[in-house]
Design goal:
Blueprint lengths: L2 H18 L23 H6 L22 E7 L6 E11 L2 E8 L2 E10 L2 E4 L7 E5 L3 E12 L2 E2 L7 E14 L2 E23 L2 E20 L2 E16 L3 E11 L2 E13 L2
């Protein structure tokens, strides 16, 4: 197989990994100029006087991410690296110390484990047990996370807060029957910018605006050839209390190709 073809395959693989991690605020993820709504914004004082809408129980309770079994969010992405697509996130099970999030794309299903800690909610897999699996018709990807640090959704998010989430992974992948080994890491840096009104198909929300700078690197060995591939992106996310992630907009680059993407919440149901 030509080296160029191998690189294309791994580029597509990285895009798939990126796409299936959309539910984690660290991949889609304003250094670039992002249009800002002209609707009234809440001030820091107004924010401080509004009690958080905490959804979930025990250590899993979080104002900006409702941890409820059966909670469902449907999204649509436009202008992303793989074109327009839709997907649905569902919390399929909740435990005292964590929960399982299942994302369904067309032809792709990703199951992601999360941990609930006093500091907040932590994605244990790329995107977000410590193994992540991605299966499509021609590509099978199995990754085991070795190290996870930081937090994805802090227990408290206020204007000016900054935090980080990092993980390392290794595993195996199969492309059309040809095996390969892969190692890599993902890092996301978050900054809470303040409350802003945002309108999406699912409704209008007063949401916390969060900037996320992310990098994902994968080094795969395929037929004796080492193929490093990287993704980097800067996105703005909007999170509404009691609802979750309602919008993401930003830019990224995959193997030298730049793109601008917008993802919006179409509908949701919080039991």
């Amino acid at each position: 197989m030509e080296k160029r073809k191998i690189r294309i395959l791994f580029s597509l693989l990285l895009v798939m990994v990126f796409v299936t991690a959309c539910s984690l605020p660290g991949n889609e993820t304003p250094t670039p100029t992002i249009p800002v709504t002209e609707e009234p914004q809440a001030t820091a004082t107004e924010l401080a006087t509004e009690p958080p809408v905490v959804t979930g129980g025990g250590v899993c309770a979080n104002a900006y991410y409702p941890v409820r079994e059966g909670a469902t969010w449907s999204y649509k992405s436009t202008s992303g690296p793989t074109g327009d697509f839709s997907f649905t996130d569902t919390i399929t099970s909740v435990r005292e110390d964590g929960f399982t999030l299942t994302s369904q794309f067309e032809g792709v299903t990703r199951t992601q484990e999360w941990a609930c800690e006093p500091e907040g909610l932590v994605a244990l897999q790329l995107g977000g047990p410590s193994a992540a699996t991605l299966n499509t018709q021609d590509v099978q990807l199995n990754l085991t996370v070795n190290n996870v640090s930081g937090v994805t959704f802090p227990s408290e998010i206020i204007t000016g807060k900054e935090w980080q989430h990092m993980l390392e992974f290794e595993g195996e992948l199969d492309i059309a029957g040809t095996p390969a080994e892969a190692t890599g890491g993902a890092e996301s840096n978050f900054s809470a910018l303040g409350i802003e009104s945002v309108t999406v198909p699912a409704g209008t929300f007063d949401a916390m605006k969060v900037q996320v700078d992310s990098t994902i690197t994968i080094n795969a060995t395929f037929q004796g050839i080492s193929m490093p591939v990287a993704f980097s992106g800067t996105y703005t996310f909007w999170f509404a209390q009691g609802v979750g992630w309602v919008k993401a907009s930003g830019t990224g680059e995959v193997v030298g190709t730049s793109f601008t993407e917008t993802i919006e919440l179409q509908s949701y149901n919080i039991p």
